[in-house]
Amino acid sequence: MLIASQMEPTYARTVYPCFDEPAMKATFNIRIIHDPSYVALSNMPAIDVSEVKDENGSLWTVTTFNTSLKMSTYLTAFVICDFDYVTRTERGNEIRIWARKEAVKNGYIDYALNITGTIFSFLEDILNVSYPLPKTDMVALPDFGAGGMENWGLVIFQEASLMNFPNDEFTRRKAMIALIVSHELGHQACEWFGNLVTMNWWNDLWLNEGLASYFEYLGATFVEPNLSLDKIFYAHVVQPVLREDSEIARSLSESEDRIKESFYIMSLFDNITYSKGASITWMLSSFLTEKLFIRALTSYLKEFSFSNANQDDLWTHIQMIVDAQDEVQLPAPVKKIMDSWTCQNGFPVLTLNLTTGTITQEQFLNKNNRKSTDSYNNTWIIPISWMRNGSSQPLTWLDKNSKMFPEMQVSESEYDWILLNVNLSGYYRVNYDQINLKRLARLLENDPKGIPAVSRFQLIDDVFALKDFGYVPIETALELTKYLAKEDELFIWNVVLLNLIPDNLESTLKNHEVYPLLKKYLLKRMLPIYHYYAGFIRQNVDALEGDYFAQVYLEKLLATACWLGLQDCLDLSSELYAKWRDNPKYKIPFLIRRTVCCYGVAVGSDKEWNFAWEMYNHTDSLEEDEDILLYAMSCAKESWLLYRYLQYGLSDTLFSSNCTSVIISHVMNKDIGHRIAWEFVTENWPLLRQGYGHELLHDVLKVMGRFVKTDVQIQELQVFYNATLEEDEREAITMLLESAKLENIERRKLLIKVASWLEKNVDD
C-alpha cells in the first residue's frame, strides 16, 4: 500500500480547504496520522513522531513536520510508504532518495543519488542562489502519471525516471534520468519561475516549465559530459516541437482571462509549454549571450523570491541588464522582441533570395490545405546567426516582413554559399533559393563537415518540412540526400529515414515500385555507417556505451537495412538470435533487440517462432522484453504462423485482453499480414466485439485505411461496418475512409515522383 499526492495544478483544494491559486502563498503546518509500519514524508523535515490510540485501542503514529516556507498550494505534498532510502548531504542539504526496498538493495537508485547533489550545486552556482530548504526527499513511485513533480522538498518521480538497472540499458536510461532529475531540481533550487518565484497565474506556466526544460539540458550535460548538448537539444526538443507547433493554434502565453477552468489549465501541460518554452529560452540565451542571460535571471530571482511574477517582470530585468552594458545591441526593447515569440501562435519561415540578398518572413503554414484567401500578417523580430563559406558572421536581425542584406548577396562562384540559423539558435525554418541549395548540396557531397552537424540535421529537416507543407517539390528535398554515404552522424540518418520511410508506411512502400529503387539508392549510402556499427555489434558492443545516439537511433538504422533486404543485416540478426536460442541466458544487446528478434523470426522457420513464443511465456521475462517479443512474433514470413499467432491471441488463458488488440495491429502492419489480420477480424468479430468493441475496430480501420485506393475497396470495408456499427458511427467511418483514400491517392502521386527521381539518380 502506498499514498502519494499530486496537487498541480488544481487539486490541493480536494485535500484541504484553500484559495488554490499560485499567487496566494502561505506557510503550511502539516501533521499526518498513519499506520506505525509506514513512514510519512512531506515538504519539510519531521520535527516530532509520537503515538496515539484510537477508540478501539489500536496504536497509530503521528508525524508532525516543521512549518514550511511561504509557498503556493500546488507545491504542498505528502507520501506515506514503507520504502527504504539512500542518502548523502551536499552543502548542508540532506538528499534522500526513496524507493521500493528491493530496488534500493539492488542499487537501482544509486545513479540518481550520484548526480542529484552535483546538479543542485551546478544550478546554485550558475544562478548564484542558495537552496532554502534543509532537506530534499525524492521518491520513486511504481505508478505515477507524470515523469516527475517538483513539490518543494519532496520531489515525486515515476520509477522509470529515477532507476538505472546496473546490468542493462547503457547511457540511454542514464541520460533520461539525468534530464528528468535536472528538470525537477531546476524548479527546486532556483529556476526562473517555480517554487521560489511563481507565476501569477497559469497563463505564464511556460516560464515555469520552459525554463526548467532549458536548465534540464544544461544540468544533464554537466553531469554526463559525453551527451552533446546542442545535438540532443535540437533532436529532442526543437525539432519535434517545430513539427507540432505548425499544426496547433495556440500561443505560448495566453491572456489571463482566457484561462479559467481546471481542464483548460490541465491542457496547458503540453509540448508547446515545455519544448517551445525551452526553445524560445535557448534563442533568448543565444542572442543575449549566456553571461547576460544568467545575470538577468539572478537579479530577477533576488527581487521576486517567495513571491509571484509574470513574464513582463522578467523582460524588465533583462532590459535593465542590457541597458547597463554595450557589447550586446538589440534592435528593439526585450519585451517587444519576446512578445513576438510568446504572444503569437506558430513561428516564421524565412525565404532567401541570394541574388538580391533579400530575406522575407511569413508564418509557416500548410499551403496544401489553405485557401489562397487566408492571409496572416504576423511578424516576428528574428535573430539571424549565419555563416558564409564556412566562416561565422556577426548576428543580424530581421524586424519586418522583408529586408535587404547587401552582405548576403552571393557571387557567381559556386563556392560562395550562405547558411542561416547556424546551430539552430533561432526558432524558425529556412527556405533557401535554388542557387544556394545547389551550392549547399554540392558542398555536402564534397565536404559534409564544412557544415556543422546540427546545421546538416536542420537543413534536411527543414527541406522535408517545407516539402510536406507545399513550399518546395519533393525533388528539392531528395537532392540533399545524395551526399549521405559521407554522413557518419546517426541522429542525421535518423531524420532522413523518418522522412523517407515513416514507420507506419513500411508495408505500403514494400508493395510499391519505388521499393527496389529506394533499396538500391539507400543501401549504397547506408553501407559505410552500417558496417561501422555492425562491427561494434559483432566485436565489442560495450564500446557503444558512451554513444548516446547509438542507444537511441541505431535501432532504426539497422531495422531499415534489414527492411531493405541487406544480406549482412539479415545474417547478423539470425546469428544473434541463434546465439540466444542456444543459450537463453545470453542477452541480445538491448539497443537492437527489437530488430534482431523481428528478423530472427522473419528469416527463420517455425522453430525460431516457437522459441520466441516460449521466451514470451517465461515467467521472469521483463515487460520491455515481452513487448519486443509480441512484436517479433508478428514478423513471421509464413501466413500460417501469423494466422496461428492471431488464434493464440484470442485465447484468454494465453494472453491478457489488452495483448490481443496489440497482436492484431502488429500483424496488420506487416506487408503480408494486413489481409490475414483483416480476414481474421471479420471472421471472429462476434468474439472480438465482446472483448474490445469499437476501439479495436478503429485501430484496425486506421491501418486498413492505408491500403484503400479505390471506391470498391471502401465498399468492401463498408459492408462489414454497416453490419456491425450504429448509424452515426457509420458516417464517421465513411468519412475516415474517404479521407484515407484521398491521402493514398496523393501519396501515390508523390511516390511516382520519388520513383522517377530515383531512376535518374540511383546510379550517381
From TrEMBL:
Active site per UniProt: E184 (proton acceptor)
GO CC terms in record: cytoplasm; extracellular space; membrane
CDD domains hit by this protein: M1_APN-Q_like
Gene3D superfamilies listed in its UniProt record: 1.25.50.20, 2.60.40.1910, Neutral Protease Domain 2, tricorn interacting facor f3 domain
Single Gene Ontology MF annotation: zinc ion binding
Protein's GO biological process: peptide catabolic process; proteolysis
Domain of life: Eukaryota
Residues binding Zn(2+), per UniProt: H183, H187, E209
InterPro entries: Aminopeptidase_N-like_N, Aminopeptidase_N-like_N_sf, ERAP1-like_C_dom, M1_APN-typ, Peptidase_M1, Peptidase_M1_aminopeptidases, Peptidase_M1_dom, Peptidase_M4/M1_CTD_sf
Sequence intervals crossing the membrane: none
Family recorded in the similarity comment: Belongs to the peptidase M1 family.
UniProt name for this protein: Aminopeptidase
Gene assigned in the entry: Lvrn
